[in-house]
Amino acid sequence: MKTNIEAAEGKLGILIPGLGAVATTLIAGVEAVKKGIAQPIGSLTQMGNIRLGKRTENRFPKVKDFVPLAALNDIVFGGWDVYSDNVYEAAMKAKVLEAGLLNAIKAELEAVVPMKAAFDKNYAKNLVGTNIKAGTRYELTNAVMNDITSFKEKNNCSRIVLIWCGSTEIYYEASEIHESLEKFEQALINDDKRISPSMIYAYAALKLGIPFTNGAPNLTVDIPALIELAKETNTPIAGKDFKTGQTLMKTILAPGLAARSLGVKGWFSTNILGNRDGLVLDDPDNFKTKEISKLGVLEDILRPDANPELYGDLYHKIRIDYYPPHGDNKESWDNIDIFGWLGYKMQIKINFLCRDSILAAPIALDLALFSDLAKRAGMSGIQEWLSFYLKSPQTAPGLRPENDIFKQLIKLQNTLRHLMGEDLITHLGLDYYQELVDVL
Ligand SMILES: NC(=O)c1ccc[n+]([C@@H]2O[C@H](COP(=O)([O-])OP(=O)(O)OC[C@H]3O[C@@H](n4cnc5c(N)ncnc54)[C@H](O)[C@@H]3O)[C@@H](O)[C@H]2O)c1
Q1: Which atom of ligand 1 is nearest to the CA of 120?
Q2: Residue whose CA is closest, atom 6 of ligand 1?
Q3: Ligand 1 atom nearest residue 79's Cα
Q4: Best substitution site from 242, 276, 277 to test ligand 1's pocket, by max atoms within 8 Å of Cβ?
Q5: Opening angle at CA 223, ends 222 and 224, nearest 5
Q6: Are 332 and 350 a contacting pair, CB within 8 Å?
Q7: Which of 96, 165, 291 gets mutated to test ligand 1 (max ligand atoms within 8 A of its CB)?
């Protein structure tokens, strides 16, 4: 049965805490696509297709023509940052996109000026910006809510979504103040420093019933208090950490090795990058947050517990080094020690010269559009079907995350089919094409 989905009428405001490399690449990209001077490559919502019905039916529409998503022309961007550069200036500094492209959309980019950030330097020590709000945690939350409502009015938006593209915060774990909404709200009033800045934005959004997705590895909405708030206000949430670069490759390759029952003894991954993200990750406390997010992937796909002969001895090591000359053009190396028939050893080497924000921007766009769709479709709480985009997917408590990108894609596509009242695809086929085989 088709779900009743509210139409995507009017403008969609995408509000972004953290107008750095990823966010400016996203905004500039959407503005360039609107002008017809570039293509939204890497975005499943804009470029991807989805098979519907039986293979004999030959139905393969574009995702954006199948589900009612906001049109790119209806998007308005805004955001917050601890630096006061407008998006044109920030994009020029990030050096992801060429000046020629940025100059062609200069007016649109200059119009996006960051609002003052809800910030606490203890969460990202290497940042020195001054575009910062003053106040207690409680006051900051109210100020962010005011920012959101006045942005919505001023820009005549019918809907808003938030997506965290801020720096990775230092490593922290959930504590008792994160356990329930009541405790969290009391901690806000007490100005408890265990509430991270990203949680302030998340709380403000969810309180207003606005979807929130998290592109960084910090916990943010992955705490019981904010999951509770999301359910209470019927709001979708998703996190954590955009799946780009090296982890994208890992979740493509590891399922293939596991599918062929090939053993993996070691996986050494190292990266060098020189953007502001790299600078923040140069602090060991911030790196730890990223490391934990990246480490879980292989274990979840290979399941050493269920397959000790093949994966029981797996040694997984990850390094990230800050190397300014590379800027946003991250370079990663993977050495993978595998073994096959009778235990014979083999090696795979990957050297990926990627562009971090070029891979992350379309993910941010899709997460924003899909979280808006989810809200209009009446879905709330953790949106596991968006795991496809995330390195460390948030799941219902007690469930293992699914990190295999192919299973994640099937889940995403089946969710869309389900929403639109189409048959789910099992790839069995025997129920309808056996007769074609028998004819031969
Ligand atoms: N680029 C990628 O491929 C990729 C992949 C996965 C995850 N991420 C994550 O996405 C986030 C953004 O990455 P980036 O490359 O754009 O980093 P970036 O450093 O260029 O941008 C982050 C911006 O967030 C701002 N910021 C920090 N704390 C803030 C706060 N409390 N409020 C408002 N602004 C704040 C910083 O000033 C900075 O401008 C990072 O957390 C990164 O780890 C990026």
Answers
A1: 31
A2: 242
A3: 33
A4: 277
A5: 130
A6: yes
A7: 165
pLDDT confidence tier of residue 265, bands split at 50, 70 and 90: very high
Q: Which atom of ligand 1 is nearest to the CA of 83?
A: 37
* Whole-angstrom distance, CA of residue 241 vs CA of residue 229: 21
User: Following CA atoms 203, 413, 391, 237 in sequence, which dihedral angle do they give, to the nearest 10 degrees?
Assistant: 10
Instruction: List, as one string, the DSSP characters of 362-399.
Output: HHHHHHHHHHHHHHHTT--EE-GGGGGGBSS---STTP
Q: In the numeric block, which tokens belong to residue 12?
A: 């969609």
What is the CB neighbour count within 10 angstroms for residue 19? 31
User: CA-CA distances (angstroms) from residue 41 to 126, 281, 346, 352?
Assistant: 33, 28, 34, 18
Question: pTM for this one?
Answer: 0.95
Q: Report pLDDT digits (tens) over 206-222.
A: 999 999 999 999 999 99
Residue 382 burial by CB count (10 A; 0-12/13-18/19+): exposed, middle or buried?
Answer: buried
